[in-house]
Amino acid sequence: MAKFVKKGVGTPSIKGSGKLGCEPVGRVRRSQLISTYGIGAIIDLEKGSFMPLGLDDWEPVTKVPSLSIAEERLQQMLEVDHFRMAPVAKDIIPGQVDPWQSIPVVRFPEWHQCPSCLRIGREGEPFELATNRSELQCSGHDRPVVTTPVRFVLACARGHVEDFPWVWWAHKSSDAICNSPKLALKSAGKSAALADLFVNCKSCGASESMGDAFRPEALRGRKCRGSQPWLHSREAECAEEPKVIQRGASNAHFPVVASALTIPPASAAAFKIINELWHALDSAAEDAVDHILRGVAKKLSVDAAPLLTAYREKKRLQGENVSLPSSSPRRKEYEALCQSRVDDEEFAGIQPQFRNSVSEVPRALAEWFDIVGAVSRLREVRALAGFTRIEPYPVSPENIPAAIRSGRIAALSRKPKNWLPAAEIRGEGIFLRFRTDAIDRWVEQNKGVSGRADRLEQRSEALAKDRDYDRDYQITPRLLLVHSFAHALIRTISLECGYSSSSIRERLFVAEQEDGEMAMNGVLLYTGSPDSEGSLGGLVRLAEPELLVRVVMRAIRSARWCGSDPVCLETDPAQSGERISGAACHCCLLAPETSCEKFNRELDRTMLVGSAPGMSGDVWPGFFDLEED
Question: Which ranges constitute the DSSP H helices of 387-519?
């Protein structure tokens, strides 16, 4: 478990131990710091609401060689030298941890409310720190009362966030000037509606309802102040209008996470040794590297040839040009998954990080798929590159650095660093490749399929233009088919393989044939959790012919019926709003957010089972055109 300590809290000496320690404000899993509880997020912990600080404050606690990890392709895409994992703090004594092994946080929001007298304010105005120096308390009672953070904050689309302007809001309808406001947040007691809450100033009597706080015009004319609490700074200018959001709302923090699979040659066991020695090897003269590696091989009692080969491959990967089409990084993974890789052996006690056994699909599925891969060993590196608020910003990994420089994505540090926080995910997966000729034939024979995809493409393009972001892909029947099938299969295999659906992630490989490159139409379903679930073997077992036929056919048949039909199946793509989906709802295709890499968008069940019966206009069969049972 990674642990949080509040920035600025003292580190008193622990008697008799000779060590320094402090009381943590909470603890989370290491992998959660790359997503849900990442830098800039607002987190409800045991002792209040806090925000993890940026990389400038991470630097002292992560500058340990054992926390450094490598993934060459991802490093090049994100323009960094390496990645660092969060430290795992150990208790010095019960309840006390080493602050140099913990992630620093800052209290946010600063405004709190006393649950007893309903007074709202900040530290020193009028609340004070409790004895544990992590909580605030109200002293206007017989016994100090621990305060709670307020529910509302301001945020803008560029990632800035600040406290709600309570003093201004309470007096915005009052002509009098209040020099010493004393505010309380009260409820009329009539209902649980927002309009029942009001801010009252005890000094001058001014009062204002919270009912209009979420209206677009509520803060009209009030510019964002560019506040960045995670960086202890404030940007000079921000043209965005702030919006009122709830502290724990899902739109308060959208992490921008980039990931890559470790594939050959970087997956070889010798590569791990080279990565661990890279700081020394990279600074050594070229003619000295051979001598160093032969000495390492002798110490490990292994042959030096694999180490020398891994060193040359790492040098080659570092020199590759990453300014390639957006499909290229995924294409390399796609090509690796389409080939068997089971001959690697243990080297110096280290196992290879990629093993894949490819075979032909059973005859019952050969009409739709051509190969299946049982990925028994898999490593994924996920790196947190930035975040957004209000709305997610869809972007491919290689375009993230440019989006950060333009301000579309909030940065994790005041100045660019040569590293980013990351986590390693090790597990297993199953890969299915669709028959390219079958998809092409189906699209060519059914013009209505392309027409439906075009309507979603137009909706997606309009939304991107409205929110001012650039798309690097198009919505096609191939994408809708592969993505919808992945969701249908996740829902089915979670009942077969022993994993919960939230522990299974999709990785889509979709591209049209162009520039001399073949089309991609495959999907990898793999364990998306770094805990013990990653080694159960349930997904690899599904590649066995009998089980594979059963789960695929069950997924297809389940997609033919939805509890929301006929409304779901008859959904008009032009009216999908921000979902950018056709027939897809919680009863049929939507998956947990941890499973989908497209925010549960760009789905359409009609691609699997065909258009709704009795629809006007073009009618088409689904790709999986099964005869009625």
Answer: 400-405, 436-445, 447-467, 477-493
Q: How far is CA 476 from CA 39, 254, 450, 600, in A?
A: 35, 26, 7, 16
Tokens of 117: 């007298």
Structure-block tokens of residue 528: 């998306």
Instruction: Tell me the percentage of the chain whose pLDDT exceeds 70.
Output: 92
With beta carbons less than 8 A apart as the criterion, state whether 391 and 467 touch.
Answer: yes
What pLDDT does 17 receive? 33
- The answer to whether the beta carbons of residues 127 and 48 sit under 8 Å apart is no
- Could you give the CA distance from residue 115 to residue 124 in angstroms, rounded to a whole number? 17
Whether 239 and 187 map to the same domain: the answer is yes
Look-up: residue for tokens 């000779």? 18
Q: Are residues 183 and 288 in the same domain?
A: no
Structure tokens at 83: 């990645």
Note whether residue 556 is domain-resident: yes
Question: 161 in a domain, yes or no?
Answer: yes
Which residues 6+ apart lie within 8 Å of 404 measured at CB? Answer: 385, 386, 410, 411
Which residue is associated with the tokens 């939507």?
590
Rounded CA-CA distance 383/84 in Å is: 9
Distance from C-alpha of 494 to C-alpha of 507, rounded to nearest angstrom: 16
Q: DSSP labels for 162-219?
A: EE--HHHHHHTT--S--SS--EEEEE-SS-SSGGGEEEEETTT--EEESTTTTSTTTT
- C-alpha closest to that of 442 among 627, 606, 585: 606
Q: Number of helices (H) and strands (E), helices first, in the chain?
A: 15, 29
**Residue 500's pLDDT is what?**
84
Residue 453 backbone dihedrals phi, psi, to 5 degrees: -65, -35
3-class secondary-structure state, position 404: helix
Q: What is the DSSP string of 111-145?
A: -EE-TTT-EEEEETBEEEE-TTSSSEEE-SSSS-E
Q: Which of 102, 107, 104 is nearest to 3 (CA)?
A: 102
Q: Tell me, yes or no, whether 325 lies in a domain.
A: no
The pTM of this model reads 0.88
The length of the chain in residues reads 629
Host domain of residue 243: 113-249
* 514-568 pLDDT per residue, tens: 877 889 999 999 986 665 445 667 889 999 999 999 999 999 999 999 999 889 9
Greatest Cα pair distance, the chain, in angstroms, is 84
SS (H, E, C) 286-342: HHHHHHHHHHHHHHHCCCCHHHHHHHHHHHHHHCCCCCCCCCHHHHHHHHHHCCCEC
DSSP 362: P
Domain co-membership, 42 together with 65: yes
In a domain, 397, yes or no: no
Q: Are 43 and 17 in contact (CB under 8 A)?
A: no
Pairing of strands 103-107, 48-52: antiparallel
15 has pLDDT over 90: no
Nearest Cα residue to 501 out of 492, 514, 510: 492
Calpha distance 211→596 (Å, rounded): 35
Determine the pLDDT at residue 343. 67
Answer yes or no: do 377 and 524 share one domain: yes
Name which of 11-15, 248-252, 296-300, 389-393 the model is least confident about.
Answer: 11-15
486 and 553 inside one domain:
yes
Distances (CA, A) of 513 to 510, 518, 519: 10, 5, 4
